[in-house]
Amino acid sequence: KAGVTQTPRYLIKTRGQQVTLSCSPISGHRSVSWYQQTPGQGLQFLFEYFSETQRNKGNFPGRFSGRQFSNSRSEMNVSTLELGDSALYLCASSLGPSTMNTEAFFGQGTRLTVV
Amino acid sequence: QQQVKQSPQSLIVQKGGIPIINCAYENTAFDYFPWYQQFPGKGPALLIAIRPDVSEKKEGRFTISFNKSAKQFSLHIMDSQPGDSATYFCAASNSLNYGGATNKLIFGTGTLLAVQP
């Protein structure tokens, strides 16, 4: 059974650009959540989706957005990139209606570097 | 109130030792407490999780101890091995408050564990 797949694995972007990251959950999983991981702030929750609907959102500016498609695949977008957006972006999926109360499986992440 | 405080920041033990990582929380609405293990270049992987109705849970060499009155929980790794060297994160959420402010998995800051051969 394939795990959570995140693409691309590595990305280098310039300040001011926008970026789209992709997450394919484990087959059959309908909940997807996104996290930002940095050495200084640790793992910070971005948002969670279930059945194409955003269930919850973390405390990030509006430049961070996401969506989920009917096949449960999810994308997150960051517009007007800032140097501080450099981080490992992790996606997690779970079988149940929420990744917050059951085993959530994480992908390997996308390492975004903003220069 | 949303924070989960984790200590120590780093830990070095000898093979066979029992590292203990501690976490404390403030929000009494939290009712799901997982521990994640992360190796370099990998995403976190769920090790073990506990809910407040039990005080201890064991899975293999990993044990969670939970003290509801003190709002603390800890991870013990029995007979630690060099392969256990990783970063460990505790987390907490209010699992049933779907979409609510506390229904977010709040992570501790992580503990870098090194098990020396």
Q: Please tell me what the overall shape of chain B is.
A: globular
Q: What is the tally of beta strands of chain A? A: 11
Give the overall silhouette of chain A: globular
From the alpha carbons, calculate the radius of gyration of chain B and give it in angstroms: 14 Å
Can you characterise this structure?
The complex is a heterodimer of chains A (115) and B (117). Chain A has 115 residues and is an all-beta fold. Chain A has no helices and eleven strands. In chain A, the strands form two sheets. In chain A, strands 2, 4, 5, 6, 9, 10 and 11 form a seven-stranded mixed β-sheet that branches. In chain A, strand 4 (31-38) and strand 5 form a beta hairpin. Chain A starts with a strand and ends with a strand. In chain B, a hairpin with a 4-residue loop joins strand 7 and strand 8. Chain B has no helices and eleven strands. The mean pLDDT of chain B is 91. With 117 residues, chain B is mainly beta. In chain B, the strands form two sheets. In chain B, strands 2, 4, 5, 9, 10 and 11 form a six-stranded mixed β-sheet that branches. In chain B, strands 1-3-8-7-6 form a five-stranded antiparallel β-sheet, with no helix packed on it. Chain B is globular. The termini of chain B are far apart. Chain A binds chain B through residues 4, 33, 42-45, 48, 55-56, 58, 90, 92, 97-109, and chain B through 32, 36, 41-46, 49, 89, 91, 93-96, 98-100, 103-110.
Key terms for this structure?
heterodimer; A: 115 residues; mainly beta; seven-stranded mixed beta sheet; B: mainly beta; six-stranded mixed beta sheet; 11 strands; globular
Blueprint (SSEs and pairs):
The complex is a heterodimer of chains A (115) and B (117).
Chain A: E1 5-7, E2 10-13, E3 19-24, E4 31-38, E5 42-50, E6 53-57, E7 64-68, E8 74-78, E9 87-94, E10 105-106, E11 110-114
Parallel strand pairs in A: 2-11
Antiparallel strand pairs in A: 1-3, 3-8, 4-5, 4-9, 5-6, 7-8, 9-10, 9-11
Chain B: E1 4-7, E2 10-14, E3 20-25, E4 33-38, E5 45-50, E6 56-59, E7 62-67, E8 72-77, E9 86-92, E10 106-107, E11 111-116
